[in-house]
Write a structure and sequence with these properties.
The complex is a heterodimer of chains A (380) and B (352). Chain A is 37% helix and 8% strand. By secondary structure, chain A is an alpha/beta fold. Chain A has a single domain, classed as Thiamin diphosphate (ThDP)-binding fold, Pyr/PP domains (Rossmann fold, 3-Layer(aba) Sandwich), CATH 3.40.50. In chain A, the strands form two sheets. Chain A has a five-stranded parallel β-sheet with strand order 1-2-3-7-6, with helices on both faces. Chain A starts with a helix and ends in a 26-residue tail after the last helix. With 352 residues, chain B is an alpha/beta fold. Helices cover 36% and strands 17% of the residues of chain B. Chain B starts with a helix and ends with a helix. The chains are: A alpha/beta (380), B alpha/beta (352). At the A-B interface, helix 7 and helix 8 of A face helix 2 and helix 3 of B.
Chain lengths: 380, 352
């Protein structure tokens, strides 16, 4: 696969192998494949046969294209940061095989009749799959007045799109596990087809909000339609998983509540697509929650605070590309062309956004209270 | 005459039947208890939560995001502290989403000392609350205001923190809530759950209540005078009224302002009063360092300096870690009647 210029320096196979020494021990992915089949029935003796079920060629290519688009966008954000056009980068390079299928499977719309998305700052692939134009992500990255999510107020990838029920992303991501209870209660009350989807990282599950979500969503007679997901990249900022957790699988914590749980190889988009589809069906049908843990990669570190350089780790796009090329669904030349096309789109988008206006100083007083009611005590 | 618990209950009833309130919830809020002060008894949308304050506030935010109107309760303000970053988040949701998501939620919690509540049932929260931009903060001192402020809080499209002075929950007012029966025994028979064996199938009979509103941000003069101004809210307001009554016997007319809203606050009312009296004392029971009264005293100093006849004063709780249980400890910590009286006399005696 193609990589951005700055990424190339650190990504030869040899260097990656060398850099991998001393990293937290990776969980063998074979053992963590989904423990249920696509129809939700448990098979005797995991690993499961889920990866034998497959998706249409057209869908696989659609997923691949969106994964590439999301990665190019994320790498563009990093370039914008490195060029000094923004102050900070934090994002989801490495989570494409989870995020894109999620975005494609969401019942997209506004209000409790549709799915709610409590996302985090590694959810760019989901937004790309939902249809977010690159310009909007770059407006947020470059804190422009035109930024539709926050008006230039928040970090990159802190999305907010009410038209798709993407509620505001917060820097402490685990708080979304608590807020998800509320949107799910609204959906349950109106017997909606919509469900609540909440994402978070492995480290944040140590916070009490994660326990709140498990406890509140499984009370007998009051079960809630929440798809509780954890993107486990085996890191909490700079601290490896083993220094933060003793439990083998985070998903196992759901078992104490009698809830359905699953552990999925989040670097295989076919597996994640089938798993998400099956779990969503279960939640829509039963109104009960599912706890799903997806093993994903974190390819550029936690944030620009650690340099935002390519780091060792399995690349879901490289793996998927190989599969697609092997199956002759796509040629290497076509893949290259695809990367080039998105690179061009992202470059033009960045150039455009760079010209757009920045927030005015007076705008700090906007939107503190509804209707721009005065919030400045000097004017009371 | 309703007491404050009944007043809040009746406002919540209006909220759930006429103002779109979908959920009234918190620890022990639903049946059988209906709230530790019975403020949520007999309400059809009241339900019990796990003992989980962060879950309660997180749920309120989620309900607000989904366009629902809710009233969440934290059983005592002492237990709200572990939710403070969630409160911050609720306050910044409208702003950080650039006006895309407002949260029409109410969080209510009993505050203050006065019931021998010791270290974990006596805390105040008004000073902390005043530091949460994006929230509106209200605190009634009478049942009628408790009713009207709750109606306004429910109707407000922004998050509103409703601080109810727990020591006043059983205190009756002097003004009828529009629609309540004049006879308090009749009201009790209608809306209070019987404490004997008849409670199994009990249902309240609600009076025909009016949507009486106390506008958020508007204070009220409870005693008129021209010698000095006392500004307070909640339980301390009643002490200020008493001090004014005592001094009136001596021929000294003190003006007392019930602020009712902590944010936004009624500066114009304070300003016009202080311009008249030249002397002002701010009274509340939260701890004294970085106290909300200090902000008001600062503002009075900055804007009214040349009209003042005395230094603006703040009388607040002592800056100690808690309210001790023994009456000697509690009384030495939070302002008592004699403290307000002494401070007022000193304020009056000051020569510029």
């Amino acid at each position: 696969m193609r990589k951005s210029t700055e990424a190339k320096k650190a990504t030869s196979a040899k260097e990656l192998k060398k850099a991998s020494k001393g990293l937290p021990k990776a969980v063998p992915l074979k053992k963590v494949t989904a423990s249920r089949t696509a129809n939700g029935k448990k098979k005797n003796g995991a690993p499961t046969v889920i990866s034998k079920v497959t998706l249409s060629k057209q869908l696989q290519l659609q997923i691949f294209e969106l994964m590439v688009k999301a990665r190019v966008l994320e790498e563009r954000l990093i370039k914008v940061y490195k060029a000094g056009d923004s102050y900070f980068w934090i994002g989801g390079a490495g989570e494409e095989a989870f995020g894109v299928p999620l975005g494609l499977l969401v019942h997209k719309g506004h209000g409790p009749e549709y799915d709610y998305l409590h996302l985090h700052y590694r959810s760019t692939p989901t937004l790309v799959a939902l249809g977010m134009p690159m310009t909007d992500s770059l407006r947020l990255m470059m804190n422009r007045a035109t930024d539709p999510c926050t008006g230039g107020r928040n970090f990159c990838n802190h999305y907010c799109f009410p038209q798709w029920n993407v509620v505001p992303v917060t820097s402490p991501i685990e708080v979304q596990y608590g807020m998800a209870i509320g949107t799910a209660i609204a959906q349950k009350r109106m017997k909606s087809k919509g469900i609540t989807i909440v994402t978070g990282g492995d480290a944040g599950t140590a916070e009490g909000d994660f326990a709140s979500c498990l406890i509140w969503s499984t009370r007998p007679g009051n079960e809630l339609p929440i798809f509780i997901t954890v993107q486990n990249n085996r890191w909490g900022i700079s601290t490896p998983y083993d220094q933060q957790h003793g439990e083998k699988y985070i998903a196992d914590r759901g078992k104490a509540f009698g809830m359905r749980t699953t552990v999925v190889n989040g670097n295989d988009p076919i597996e994640t697509y089938l798993a998400i589809q099956s779990e969503m069906e279960y939640i829509r049908k039963t109104g009960k929650p599912v706890l799903a843990e997806f093993y994903v990669s974190r390819l550029y570190g936690h944030s620009s605070a650690s340099g935002a350089n390519r780091e060792p780790g399995e690349c879901p796009i490289e793996l998927f590309e190989k599969k697609l090329v092997d199956q002759k669904y796509i040629t290497t030349a076509e893949v290259k062309e695809m990367w080039k096309r998105f690179e061009e789109e992202s470059r033009i988008a960045a150039d455009q956004v760079r010209q757009e206006p920045v927030p005015t100083r007076e705008s700090i007083w906007d939107h503190i209270y509804v209707g721009n009611e005065n919030a400045d005590w000097r004017k009371f | 005459m309703a007491n404050m618990a009944q007043a809040i209950r009746m406002a919540l009833h209006v909220g759930e039947t006429r103002l779109g309130v979908t959920d009234i919830f918190g620890q022990d809020v639903g049946a059988p208890l209906g709230g530790v002060f019975t403020a949520t008894q007999g309400l059809k949308t009241a339900w019990n939560t796990p003992l989980d304050e962060r879950g309660i506030i997180g749920t309120a935010i989620g309900l607000g995001l989904a366009g629902q109107r809710c009233v969440a309760e934290i059983q005592f303000a002492d237990y709200i502290f572990n939710t403070i970053d969630l409160l911050k988040m609720a306050g910044n949701t409208y702003w950080s989403s650039n006006g895309q998501y407002n949260l029409p939620i109410v969080v209510m919690t009993p505050v203050g000392a006065g019931i021998r509540g010791s270290i974990y049932h006596s805390h105040s929260f008004d000073a902390w609350a005043s530091r949460m931009p994006g929230w509106k903060i209200v605190m009634p001192s009478t049942p009628l205001d408790a009713y009207g402020l709750m109606i306004s809080a429910i109707k407000d499209p922004n998050p509103v923190l409703y601080l109810n002075p727990k020591a006043l929950m059983r205190v009756r007012g002097e003004e009828l809530i529009p629609g309540e029966p004049a006879d308090e025994k009749e009201l009790k028979a209608m809306i209070d759950k019987p404490v004997d064996g008849r409670q199994a199938n009990w249902k309240p009979r609600w009076p025909e209540l009016e949507e009486y509103e106390v506008p958020i941000g508007k204070g009220k003069i409870t005693r008129e005078g021209d010698r000095a101004t006392l500004v307070s809210y909640g339980r301390m307001l009643l002490l200020c009224n008493k001090v004014a009554d005592i001094l009136r016997e001596e021929g000294i007319d003190i003006e007392v302002i019930d602020l009712r809203s902590i944010y936004p606050y009624d500066w114009q009312l304070i300003k016009s009063s202080v311009q008249k009296t030249g002397r002002v004392l701010f009274v509340n029971e939260d701890t004294e360092v970085t106290n909300f009264g200090e902000h008001l005293a600062y503002r009075a100093t900055m804007e009214l300096f040349y009209e003042l006849m005395a230094r603006p004063r703040v009388l607040a709780g002592k800056n100690v870690p808690g309210i001790g249980l023994h009456p000697n400890l509690e009384e030495a910590t939070v302002p008592q009647l004699e403290d307000v009286l002494r401070e007022t006399r000193e304020l009056l005696a000051e020569v510029p």
